[in-house]
Design brief:
Elements: E1 3-7, E2 10-13, E3 18-25, E4 34-39, E5 46-51, E6 58-60, E7 68-73, E8 78-83, E9 92-99, E10 109-112, E11 116-121
Parallel strand pairs: 2-11
Antiparallel strand pairs: 1-3, 3-8, 4-5, 4-9, 5-6, 7-8, 9-10, 9-11
Length: 122
């Protein structure tokens, strides 16, 4: 069974960068697409980025395109989210999620991490 543990969150000034990591336990990590989602206070959880099992396909929310990059290292069972040019509106808890399939399906995630807090100050 796969478990997901996020890390790398913190406090950063607007315009700064952070890299989130999501470490997966379990030998089937590389079989599945992975995603990042976020939830800001008082708002619903929203999609941020996703990557296919191979890493060849990615997808991004319009709000983060050109600023965030999702990647994965299947040898390390880890998926990353590089966040550049951060804005105060990026403040949220960021969650890593395992997809049900090898390809990206934005509404098909069946395992979630506990989340890591990102705070962007203005």
């Amino acid at each position: 069974q796969v478990q997901l543990v996020e890390s790398g969150g913190g406090l950063v000034q607007a315009g700064g960068s952070l890299r989130l990591s999501c470490a997966a336990s379990g030998r089937t990590f590389s079989d599945y697409a992975m995603g990042w989602f976020r939830q800001a206070p008082g708002k619903e959880r929203e999609f941020v980025a996703a990557i296919s099992w191979s890493g060849r396909s990615t997808d991004y929310a319009d709000s983060v395109k050109g600023r965030f990059t999702i990647s994965r290292d299947n040898a390390k069972n880890t998926v990353y989210l590089q966040m550049n040019s951060l804005k105060p509106e990026d403040t949220a808890i960021y969650y890593c999620a395992k997809g049900r399939y090898s390809h990206i399906e934005l509404k098909a995630h069946d395992l979630w991490g506990q989340g890591t807090q990102v705070i962007v100050s203005s």
